[in-house]
Specification:
Blueprint (H helix, E strand, L loop, with lengths): L9 H32 L7 E4 H11 L7 E5 L5 E4 L1 H18 L4 E9 L2 E8 L6 H4 L19 H11 L3 E7 L2 E9 L1 H4 L1
Parallel strand pairs: 2-4
Antiparallel strand pairs: 1-3, 4-5, 5-7, 6-7
Length: about 190
């Protein structure tokens, strides 16, 4: 389209360039996700480190693009840390946030982290349609999609689950007041010392 003359019309050129950029970023996320999944499944020992959760959640919230009118917020103590592989926990949470953004048309998305005994829990709660019980058994399987018209390849939640498992954590899904809550539980860095 650009070569056919759209490059001469600034508005059209910008629209096509934005589309190219969005699709390029999507391909990068898919490639990064597949690498994370392969690394998590390889059995290679992970280098766990102290990961500050507040800056990570703020970063994910800053790049998320919820629909107009959807409120996105972060609730996390500044000092809260997890014992994790930063790249893996980032990719796992990014997949959960992207999922919430895709399925939340109105209402809110909440990124919340808190202490839970000797662990930390990080939840992504949305007011989307929720997860039907019939999908819960398979939702973390690679290439499984709960809707035929959904975007993506069914890798996001599978990557999140494998990344969390590789860090000896747990990823769960449950109903929220109006939507779904995905929660990652990891070792607390404070408890490891």
């Amino acid at each position: 389209m650009l070569q056919a003359g759209a490059k001469e019309i600034p508005a059209e050129r910008d629209r096509f360039l934005e589309h190219v950029e969005a699709q390029s970023e999507r391909l990068i996320r898919i490639a990064r996700g597949l690498l994370v999944l392969a690394r998590a499944q390889s059995g290679e020992p992970l280098q766990l480190e102290t990961v500050e959760l507040r800056p990570l959640l703020d970063e994910l919230a800053a790049v998320a693009r919820p629909r107009s009118g959807v409120d996105l917020s972060v609730e996390c103590e500044a000092s809260l840390t997890a014992l994790a592989a930063r790249d893996l926990v980032h990719e796992a949470l990014a997949a959960l946030v992207e999922n919430a953004v895709e399925f939340t048309e109105t209402g809110a998305i909440r990124l919340t982290a808190y202490r839970q005994d000797r662990r930390v829990a990080v939840s992504v709660t949305d007011t989307g349609g929720g997860v039907l019980p019939s999908h819960r058994e398979r939702i973390f399987e690679p290439f499984y999609r709960s809707t035929a018209e959904g975007r993506g390849f069914g890798l996001g939640l599978a990557i999140a689950a494998e990344a969390v498992r590789a860090m000896d954590g747990e990823l769960t899904v449950e109903d929220a007041e109006a939507g779904a809550r995905f929660t990652i539980r990891l070792a607390s860095a404070g408890a490891a010392g």
